[in-house]
Amino acid sequence: LDRKKAIDEVIRMAYAKEDHLSEFPAFLTYQRSGLNLIMQPQSGETLPAPLKRYIQALLKENMEGPYGSEWPAEEKVKKREMVASEARYIIVRQLVEDPGKHDGLWRDGGDPVVSFVQFRFLIDEEIPVLYVYELQLEKCVQKKGLGKFLMQLLELVARKNNMKAVLLTVQKRNLAAMAFYSKLKYVVSSISPSRVDPLVVLKNYEILCKTFDPEAKAKLEVRKIKLDRSIESAAL
């Protein structure tokens, strides 16, 4: 009971912060590869209408392909997740002299949004974790180091708020994303469907993780992998 209370308090304290970015001033701007970007915090329950429209448009642009026929149902789920009170965002804007010349998805004036991250603080396997719900970049800012930069920022936010791991879900069809996270040292988690029970019908996604301490590693990376090996040995 004491352990549960302590973990609940870690999550409560993480959500109590209004701005998770201000603690990392070096990550508030991104000026590389011809980009001039700023990072802004946002919460799901206070998303203005223009950001809602943009998020829906970018999700459709990037994820309709990987989800295939499942996209219509998944799109409805993502619309609900988008405005949840637990949802926290990093909104990435491009500083431009003439916003009217921007040819991306943003249509609502001011410096255009070109990317966003949605994350939450959760408890998984009795471990406090930062779960990345979405990491979405427009094509104009892809392959310029921004994705890696944002993941590094999320890992810093996780550590600063006493989270013991970062978790995320990736569609297996999204080969580029799978390769991207592999380069960042993310591994298939023990709670991913393919690890929990590889004998059932395979799911179309994997849960990936990066852990920050031995307990998280044992629960989120190692435990069920050892079980799988014991099953293989018994079969032999």
UniProtKB/TrEMBL annotation:
Keywords: Acyltransferase, Cytoplasm, Nucleus, Transferase
Catalysed reaction, written as an equation: N-terminal L-seryl-[histone H4] + acetyl-CoA = N-terminal N(alpha)-acetyl-L-seryl-[histone H4] + CoA + H(+); N-terminal L-seryl-[histone H2A] + acetyl-CoA = N-terminal N(alpha)-acetyl-L-seryl-[histone H2A] + CoA + H(+)
Location, primary (coarse class): cytoplasm
GO molecular function, one term: protein N-terminal-serine acetyltransferase activity
Domain N-acetyltransferase: 88-184
InterPro entries associated with the record: Acyl_CoA_acyltransferase (IPR016181), GNAT_dom (IPR000182), NAA40 (IPR039949)
GO CC terms, sorted: cytoplasm; nucleus
Record-linked SUPFAM superfamilies: Acyl-CoA N-acyltransferases (Nat) (SSF55729)
Locations listed in the record: Cytoplasm; Nucleus
Gene3D superfamilies listed in its UniProt record: 3.40.630.30
EC numbers on record: 2.3.1.257
Family the entry assigns: Belongs to the acetyltransferase family. NAA40 subfamily.
PANTHER family: N-ALPHA-ACETYLTRANSFERASE 40
Name of this protein: N-alpha-acetyltransferase 40
Native source species: Selaginella moellendorffii
